[in-house]
Write a structure and sequence with these properties.
Blueprint lengths: L1 E2 L4 H8 L5 H7 L5 E6 H4 L3 H5 L7 E7 L7 H6 L4 E4 L7 H10 L3 E7 L1 E2 L11 E4 L5 E5 L3 H7 L6 E5 L1 E3 L3 H10 L4 E9 L4 H7 L6 E7 L12 H11 L2
Parallel strand pairs: 2-3, 3-5, 4-5, 8-9, 8-11, 11-12
Antiparallel strand pairs: 1-6, 4-10, 7-9
Helix pairs in contact: 7-10, 8-9
Length: about 240
């Protein structure tokens, strides 16, 4: 697996583009870039960010894993005017920074600990990785490679998302309507169900079923199983 995040200096080194804070700021245009908040502390940055006089910023959180700050994406996704990105590969981050800088609002970019082997998602639209008729699996960020392996042999469409706010409602609806069954599995590397409301709104006129997989809010709850075996078992059980 591609390791995607470390402390800030290692993040910049691993991207391999000679990036430094000035370069990041250039990619994002005139929008301030706040790099270097571990996701477990990223919510502490929220007050200063919202109080920023310019009104726009790009906040980058690193070191995301299934047991750290699962609620961060849900919180930023609920803020008006914010876009939220969960890249699955280092090569996706430059594009996301440029898009964040060109947009009208602020952005949160969540860098996970582990990434996919190859970059995907050349735009904010969901990318079709595989076509199938038995339902649709939407894999967010670094879950893609695991989802592809976990659903091998199943007649399913697999979509990839590195941007989840704004949510590509048209892309999801098109994939669901093209399948024989309107069954949707949402796999997110953060709080389970974070994008469930977006799925429901995208399919408001389409009778469907949804299974949302992700991490748990309750630290005392059983650890989520987001590995190949766990996702595969959950998908197969849902589609019976």
């Amino acid at each position: 697996m591609t390791r995607l995040s470390d402390p800030p200096s290692a993040i910049l080194d691993r991207f391999g583009k000679g990036w430094d804070p000035d370069t990041l700021s250039t990619l994002a245009g005139s929008v301030p870039v706040n790099l270097g908040a571990p996701v477990e502390r990223v919510l502490q940055q929220l007050g200063p960010v919202l109080g920023h006089s310019g009104g726009r910023t790009v906040l980058v959180g690193y070191g995301a894993s299934p047991d750290t700050a699962p609620q961060d994406v849900a919180l930023f996704g609920a803020l008006p005017g914010w876009s939220v990105h969960v890249p699955g590969h280092p090569d996706e981050v430059g594009r996301l920074l440029r898009e964040a800088g060109a947009g009208d609002g602020s952005a949160y970019i969540r860098l996970p600990e582990q990434g996919n082997a190859e970059p995907h998602g050349a735009s904010g639209a969901f990318e079709v990785i595989r076509l199938g008729a038995g339902g649709v699996v939407l894999a967010v960020g670094p879950t893609l490679d695991t989802v592809v392996r976990a659903t091998a042999g199943l007649d399913l469409t697999v979509l990839y998302a590195s941007t989840i706010r704004p949510f590509d409602a048209v892309g999801l609806r098109t994939a669901v309507l093209a399948a024989d069954r309107a069954d949707v599995v949402l796999v997110e590397p953060h709080l389970a169900g974070t994008s469930a409301r977006c799925v429901a709104e995208a399919l408001v006129n389409v009778p469907h079923r949804l299974r949302a997989l992700g991490t748990s809010w309750d630290a005392a709850a059983p650890a989520p199983v987001l590995d190949e075996a766990g996702i595969g078992a959950a998908v197969r059980a849902f589609l019976r």
